[in-house]
From TrEMBL:
Residues 65-220 form the Dynamin N-terminal domain. Keywords: ATP-binding, Nucleotide-binding. One of its GO terms (molecular function) is ATP binding. SUPFAM superfamilies: P-loop containing nucleoside triphosphate hydrolases (SSF52540). CDD domains: DLP_2 (cd09912). This is ATP-binding protein. Gene3D superfamilies: P-loop containing nucleotide triphosphate hydrolases. Pfam families: Dynamin_N.
């Protein structure tokens, strides 16, 4: 039983599809959509997989808060204050020329991303070398990412922008794009510069649509009295209230000084130094024990003791006066909830957009099949008319051949009739009466004979008249055969030409959007490239089959006409000679009752036709429902059947994509 149980378990593990359980929340929702869109039936592209993975990373990525403002408003100092560490370079010139993403990392480091796609890492201390727009070599850098082991960065990613009145228009455009995409905006301005006309123009141009996620921070409050601060704050709230949810005066300098001196920050810095030195010593020493590090460890403990015992009341007061806490509370209580909702809305909107792109691309593929179906449907009337034209045209040609053969028969009958000649004959009749007993009277009469030698000479030997006439008729019939079979080929060429015009552009069809399925479009190109196998071959085979049947019939009649017409004439003459001979015998027996038979010309013609099997020839050449008519009718019906079959086949390909669209619409609806 244990072996059977193991087998069942292994089978279930391998072949039984398990329902995937997704986590609650936005990430779980994205994963659910991802699993459905990456189903094998959609033949998903790597690009689709990547963009869906990117949405998961985006959902997990901390909320982004952009720091922006005009030149020299103290953005870098303010960010340093939020990070509790003097990391970003500051100065009197606009040094931040690139977007700086400030993210959480296990250690301080700087990542430089270039426009070429290349990336490199540098020590955090080297950041000034990559942010000064006065350096020409900075033009190759796309953006910078600063990593720091700060707890605040686990939930918030700050974006330091070049500003909206940078010397470079491209920097201004970059900032503008950032403001549109981030979860929150902190507009930083100097308290003595706030409300000036230049700033009002910038706010009107760039900030009008961001009120719900924007905070105005008035920097350098430490330079003014409380009354001046309150007056300016109220003025800005009244004048620029439509751009900001709140206005907060702060001192970035005081905040940086107090936060960087906070015991938690100092302890963290000492820890970083301690761990760094410990790792270096482990690498550089032959370690059998940790005794070599005992001294450093004791020093580390002493420093932590000093930090904890230090009076921090002054630092706490400085932090309160800086008012930086109001900024942090606004981020936590106003920006974060809105950003989470906004992010979820944006991600789900993008997921629906991804579905819409996939639907549009499938509709593009469906249009390929629709256009082929349209061609096949529209071709029907033209092809049926082409078949009908073959019948009309070559029925006339066949009738002409028939007339030629009719003329031959008439000439042969006429020349035969013309050579029926009279000749003297005698019969003996017993005389009546006693005196004439046993005596006979000779009675002369006229009978007929057929001068076959003269007939053969006239028809066949001297100028070969009949031979020439037959060859001319056979040649005409052969030409009709060649022309009609070529007309059949032209019917196929007509279908082929229409479909090849369809084929040409679709052999090269490519997806319009990167996330679309490469395999689906490859399959569509392959279908177009193989349109002969998929569509045309059935038509081609049918046409060749019809041509073969037509040729067999023509070959039969060619053979019939090529049959020895001399022998046929001999048989006809022999028949009438027999008829004459039989009539003579009857006449001689009972002259009063029977006459000598003289063949009429129409009788000779009828017999010649019978010996030639002319009834079949006549049916083939002149009947309204002749063989050409029958094969044309068969061809038309066969074409309609094949055309409908190929339309249904193409529709079946199209239906695959219609179903996929329905499946994606269902996924889209569930988002």
């Amino acid at each position: 039983m244990s072996i059977l149980s193991n087998f069942v378990r292994e089978y279930n593990e391998k072949f039984t599809q398990k329902e995937e359980i997704f986590e609650e929340g936005l990430v779980g929702d994205i994963k659910k959509v991802r699993a459905k869109l990456l189903d094998d039936k959609f033949l998903p592209s790597i690009q689709l997989r990547n963009i869906l993975d990117k949405q998961i990373r985006r959902a997990r990525y901390p909320m982004e808060v952009a720091i922006t403002g005009q030149f020299s408003s103290g953005k870098s100092t303010f960010l340093n204050a939020l990070l509790s560490k003097n990391i970003l370079p500051t100065g009197i010139t606009p040094v931040t020329s690139k977007v700086n993403f400030i993210n959480y990392g296990e250690e301080y480091k700087l990542k430089i991303t270039y426009y070429s796609g290349a990336q490199e890492y540098a020590p955090i201390e080297a950041i000034a070398d990559f942010t000064d727009q006065r350096k020409d070599e900075m033009s190759d850098i796309k953006y910078l990412t600063l990593y720091a082991p700060m707890d605040i960065l686990k939930e918030i990613s700050f974006v330091d922008t070049p500003g909206l009145n940078s010397q470079s228009q491209s920097d201004t455009d970059t900032t503008r794009r950032v403001l549109r995409d981030v979860g929150g905006i902190i507009w930083l301005t100097l308290i003595d510069n706030a409300g000036k006309m230049s700033e009002a123009k910038v706010l009107e141009e760039y900030m009008e649509h961001f009120k719900n996620k924007s905070l105005c921070v008035l920097n350098q409050k430490d330079k003014f009295s409380q009354e001046q601060i309150e007056t300016t704050t109220k003025y800005i709230q009244d004048k620029f209230g439509k751009y900001f949810a709140k206005v907060v005066p702060i001192s970035a300098k005081m905040a940086l000084e107090s936060r960087s001196a906070h015991s938690d920050i100092l302890i963290h810095d000492e820890y970083e130094k301690f761990i760094k030195k410990f790792k270096e010593d482990l690498k550089n020493n032959d370690v059998n024990s940790l005794e070599f590090f005992e001294k450093d460890f004791n020093e580390y403990k002493n420093k932590l003791k000093i930090i904890r015992e230090k009076d921090s009341s002054g630092n706490t007061k400085l932090l309160e006066e800086s008012n930086i806490q109001d900024v942090l509370e606004f981020i936590e209580n106003t920006i974060r909830p809105q950003a989470a909702e906004s992010k979820e809305y944006a991600i789900k909107k993008d997921l629906k957009g991804i579905c819409e792109i996939l639907i549009k691309e499938y509709e593009t593929i469906i249009a390929v099949y629709d256009s082929l179906i349209e061609i096949l449907k529209n071709a029907e009337q033209d092809i049926l008319e082409a078949f009908e034209d073959i019948h009309k045209t070559y029925s006339k040609e066949l009738f002409s051949v028939y007339n030629s053969l009719e003329s031959i028969m008439e000439k042969m009958a006429h020349d035969t009739f013309k050579n029926i000649k009279r000749q003297k004959a005698a019969r003996f009749e017993e005389r009546k009466g006693f005196l004439h007993k046993d005596s006979y009277e000779k009675i002369e009469y006229e009978t007929y004979w057929i001068d076959s030698d003269n007939i053969y000479k006239s028809l066949f030997y001297d100028d070969q008249t009949i031979d020439k006439m037959f060859k001319r008729a056979i040649k005409e019939l052969k030409q009709v055969e060649l022309d009609s079979t070529e007309a059949y080929r032209n019917v196929y060429r007509s279908v082929k030409q229409k479909i090849h015009r369809w084929q040409e552009p679709y052999e090269q069809i490519k997806k319009h959007r990167e996330i679309s399925s490469d395999l689906e479009f490859s399959s569509t190109r392959h279908f177009a490239a193989k349109v002969y196998e998929n569509v045309l071959r059935s038509f081609h085979r049918a046409i060749l089959e019809n041509i073969s049947a037509l040729r067999k019939k023509f070959a039969y009649f060619n053979g019939a006409l090529s049959y020895s017409y001399i022998q046929t004439t001999q048989a006809t003459i022999a028949h009438f000679e027999q008829q004459i001979a039989e009539s003579v015998l009857l006449y001689e027996k009972e002259p009063t009752k029977f006459n000598i038979y003289h063949p009429r010309e129409d009788e000779i013609l009828t017999k010649l036709k019978a010996n030639f099997g002319f009834e079949k020839i006549e049916d083939f050449l002149t009947s309204k429902r002749n063989y050409l008519f029958k094969i044309i009718q068969y061809s038309k019906n066969q074409y309609l059947e094949i055309n409908q079959d190929r339309i249904e086949f193409v529709k079946s390909k199209k239906l695959e994509y219609i179903q996929k669209i329905e499946d994606i619409k269902l996924i889209q609806k569930e988002i």
